[in-house]
Amino acid sequence: MIISKSIIRKSALQFRNLLYKEEYEDRNKALLDTILRFIQKKHVRTIHTFLAIKKNREPDISLLFEKLWSKSIVLFVSKTDFKSKQLRHYRLDDQTILANNKMGIPEPTNAEEASIEDLDIILVPLLVSDKEGYRIGYGGGYYDRLLKETKALKVGLSLSPPVDEILQREDWDIPLDYLITPFKIYNYG
Q: Exposed, middle or buried by CB within 10 Å (0-12, 13-18, 19+), for 110?
């Protein structure tokens, strides 16, 4: 029996919400430490990242921003264009003002749109990933379209280890190059 993506999404969100606050914070801190080590090994100059949806208890890497800026790493984030179903990209710095969109996603309000042609890494949000690098997000396809357009390393971030296999894959699904969890880095390359 193949479990639908909608049931997997619901289960993953439910799991995150069932984590005790301390467990969520411990996993997030361990994840941040692992991300920082990964970035240092890869000699990264530019990163496209996501901003955590707090109500969904996504990994929150905003605590790393100051450290990354101090290492002269340029950060980019996106705004969701719901009409075109595309992400528009903006440089993120310590002067960027953020506001939640209608989905609760923080987005820049005072930044100019930027090109992301020369990205080193895209940090990808997900609900669950499998051991082959396929992921399930929220179902809008925004990141699948972005990942299709770039040669940057595609790095998923998860508070949990991957599942064995996501059986329900679509033609447009783009696998990750890496998955970083609080416990381990998975290399799919």
A: exposed
This prediction's pTM? 0.91
Tell me the DSSP string of 6-28. Answer: HHHHHHHHHHHHHS-HHHHHHHH
Average pLDDT, the chain: 90
User: Higher pLDDT residue, 157 or 17?
Assistant: 157
Q: Provide the terminal-to-terminal Cα distance of the chain, rounded to the nearest Å.
A: 29
| Segment holding 135, helix H or strand E | strand 135-136
Structural domain containing residue 143: 5-187
DSSP string over 60-89: --GGGHHHHHHTT-EEEEEEEETTTTEEEE
How far apart CA 139 and CA 185 sit, in angstroms, is 24
**Domain CATH number, residue 100:** 3.40.50.10420
Phi/psi for 142 (5° steps) reads: -60, -50
Examine the pLDDT at 2 and tell me if it is beyond 70: no
* Closest C-alpha to 69, from 49, 97, 45, 86: 45
Task: State the total domains in the chain.
Answer: 1
| % residues pLDDT > 90 (the chain) | 59
